[in-house]
Amino acid sequence: MATGHTDPQRRARILAATLDHIAEEGVAGVSHRKIATRAGVPLGSMTYHFSGIDELLREAFTGFADHIVTVFAEHLDRAGTPDEACEAVTDLVHALSEGSRRDLVLTQELYTLAARRPEYRELTQAWMRRSRQHLERHFDPDTARQLDALIEGLTLHRALDPAPHDRALTRRAIHRITTADS
């Protein structure tokens, strides 16, 4: 592993370590020292790369939001018809809810920050806009907004339920939103 200024991956390791730490211990436990240790970098690297904890958190959560938007894109961009788009949304809900617990925890940690602090609300609003853009390739803006909220809610409910609902219920919920009268 390279050290000093010759280590081009140091910043990325710090951001990854930040998200790993948040997923395991929450935002409240983030400190320069803990993240530096977890990333395997000198403590001074923290202030070299980030002006403070807020910049570190914003950049880490921005990268996380980019990851989730990419997951949206992977599912929705290959749909060509309205039925395929509804099936893609169903697949997305199940992929997110059956996927990484880390992602679920990170999402909730970011939402908690956004509920408390405007700068994180801006980050989540940008994330939601980008997610809805993928939905709007297939649905009108109002339907896309409703589907975005449904995806969030069903994902959380499925992920936390010891007996999560099946694909048929997810598909019926999506059908209700996408075929409802305006």
From TrEMBL:
Highest taxon of source: Bacteria
PROSITE patterns on file: HTH_TETR_2
InterPro entries: Homeodomain-like_sf, HTH_TetR, Tet_transcr_reg_TetR-rel_C_sf, TetR_C_31
Gene3D superfamilies: Tetracycline Repressor, domain 2 (1.10.357.10)
Domain named HTH tetR-type: residues: 8-68
Key words, A-Z: DNA-binding, Transcription, Transcription regulation
Transcription listed as a keyword: yes
The entry's DNA-binding region: 31-50
Protein name in UniProt: TetR family transcriptional regulator
